[in-house]
Structure formats: structure tokens, C-alpha cells
């Protein structure tokens, strides 16, 4: 599978946020850059907890963090205001 561009990844992130009723943080571009650098084709992994298979974009852990703390572990998704 070809690698995503940063713009394609940001579009995916926006779609995931919209689908789940969350917002995207102002740090989305920085986090997207980190995901592209760190994970070969596995863009959904969390750059702060990349070895945890239970934590990925809008996983149950991510959603729980958003609801309880206002944002996910890496700060990509947040409560929509």
C-alpha cells in the first residue's frame, strides 16, 4: 500500500473525528508528522503509546480519555466545543 501524504492523513484524522463527534486539536499537523515518521504505513497508531495495540485513533482507550480528560492520550482528538 502506498504511503499517505500528510494531507491525506489529516483528511483521515478529520473524518475519524467527525464520525465520532470529536474535534481535532491545533497540534494535528505536528502529530500527523510524527505518525508519518514513526510508523511505516500504520498511521492509526498512537505516537505516545505506539506499542500498546489497544490504543489507536479513536479506540476505546482514546475515546475514554477524550471523555474523561478532554483529549486523547497524544492530544490529537479533543472534546468538540
In short, what is this structure?
With about 80 residues, the chain is mainly alpha-helical. It is about 45% helix and about 5% strand.
Describe the protein's architecture and organization:
The structure is a single chain. With 81 residues, the chain is mostly helical. It has one domain (6-79). Helix content is 44%, strand content 7%. The protein has 3 helices and 2 strands, in the order H-E-H-H-E. The chain has helices at 6-20, 28-38, 60-69; strands at 22-24, 77-79. The protein has a two-stranded antiparallel ribbon with strand order 1-2. Helix 1 crosses helix 2 (28-38). The longest helix has 15 residues, at 6-20. It is globular and about 30 Å long. The chain starts with 5 loop residues before the first helix and ends with a strand.
Query: Helical region count?
Result: 3
Radius of gyration: 12 Å
Quantity of strands, as a count = 2
What's the oligomerization state? single chain
Strand order of the largest sheet: 1-2
The number of domains is 1
| Low-pLDDT segments | none
Q: Helix amount, in percent?
A: 40-55%
Residues in β-strands, percent: 5-15%
Anisotropy-based shape: globular
Instruction: Kindly report the average pLDDT value.
Output: 92
Largest sheet: 2 strands, antiparallel
Distance between the termini: 36 Å
Amino acid at each position: 500500500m502506498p504511503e499517505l501524504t500528510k494531507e491525506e492523513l489529516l483528511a483521515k484524522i478529520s473524518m475519524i473525528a467527525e464520525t465520532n463527534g470529536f474535534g481535532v486539536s491545533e497540534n494535528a499537523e505536528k502529530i500527523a508528522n510524527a505518525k508519518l515518521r514513526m510508523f511505516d504505513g500504520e498511521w492509526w497508531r498512537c505516537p505516545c503509546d505506539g506499542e500498546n495495540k489497544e490504543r489507536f485513533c479513536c479506540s476505546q482507550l482514546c475515546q475514554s480519555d477524550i471523555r474523561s480528560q478532554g483529549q486523547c492520550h497524544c492530544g490529537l482528538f479533543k472534546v468538540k466545543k
